[in-house]
Write a structure and sequence with these properties.
Length: 304
């Protein structure tokens, strides 16, 4: 859950929640949980479920044990590695714990985490206070990455958010190439975001249309907009042939005004663009040997 100041803060919130609702289903941040603010929807039971499944060697089996357990955790800098982080998602109008398709990323050297001093394992990542699991899959270090240049602006210059699901039936290895450099910035961001709520970004239609599984969800409304954002991807996505599809789908917001009983009402509506699929054939080998694919602002169209 984002916003926690440390293990003690988590322990106190869990204690208060259990006092108000001994079932363990009470929110740790009452009044702040919404589909658009899923990071504030944690409960004692959601923490318990994640710890029992991913850290059974901790000996935690009941929600009542959580406050003491969190107080025993040590705040230390992370020693690297790829981690899967739990998250809350909306399913049929209810917020539930997701341990299958949460964030997967390589941690920064300056990040802090909460360690179990008995097992030496990372239990939670401090930036989001979600329960985390170290992945032991091999990370492929690649010197050369392929690039996809894509816009976060329409042809009329209006800003748009972007969803980039990567589809493929063949799982690809972890790679140091995954990352984004947003227009107007020099930072190479290796923390691929997934900010779109499940109820807005259900990828089942793409799975049905492409016949391929969702391998990596990426979505964000960036702070910087432009036409020259760069998605860095493993070169193997290109060289393996027609195995993967990188799908781009944009979202724009506009205000709709209606009159109800003589009263003018305004509401914000989000529209989703038609999807643009990038496959291996769309990458062009440059003189320096780099593979580059380009999505133009003119490619961004919306259903009529």
């Amino acid at each position: 859950m984002k916003g926690l100041k440390g293990p003690e803060d988590a322990a106190q919130r869990i204690e208060r929640s259990l006092k108000d609702d001994p079932s363990g289903n009470g929110l740790l941040a009452p009044g702040e949980c919404t589909p658009a603010n899923r990071s504030r929807c944690a409960t004692p039971n959601s923490y318990l479920e994640a710890i029992v499944k991913w850290h059974s060697d901790s000996g935690i089996t009941k929600a009542e044990q959580l406050p003491a357990f969190f107080r025993s955790l040590s705040r230390q800098k992370v020693k690297g590695g790829w981690y899967l982080s739990s998250r809350m998602i909306e399913v049929n109008g209810k917020m539930v714990l997701d341990l299958n398709s949460g964030f997967k990323r390589e941690l920064r050297d300056d990040e802090f985490a909460w360690y179990d001093t008995q097992t030496g394992k990372v239990i939670a990542l401090e930036d989001c206070a979600n329960i985390a699991l170290l992945e032991v899959e091999e990370v492929v270090v690649e010197d050369e990455c392929a690039e996809v240049i894509f816009p976060t602006q329409n042809t009329d210059g209006k800003d748009i958010g972007v969803n980039i699901p990567v589809m493929g039936n063949e799982a690809f290895p972890k790679s140091t190439c995954w990352g984004i450099k947003w227009s107007g910035t020099t930072k190479y961001d290796r923390e691929l975001p997934d900010q779109c709520p499940e109820y807005l970004c259900n990828m089942q239609a793409l799975v049905n249309a492409t016949g391929r599984k969702l391998q990596k969800p990426i979505s964000e409304v960036p702070e910087h907009f432009g036409t020259n954002n760069i998605l860095y991807v493993p070169k193997s996505i290109v060289t393996k042939g027609d195995v993967y599809t990188i799908v781009f789908c944009w979202t724009k917001s506009h205000v709709v005004t209606t009159v109800v009983d003589g009263v003018e009402q305004k509401r914000t509506v989000r529209s989703h663009s038609n999807a643009v699929g990038i496959r291996s054939v769309h990458f062009v080998k440059q003189p320096d040997g780099k593979y580059v694919a380009t999505v133009l602002p003119s490619h961004v169209t919306y259903p009529k």
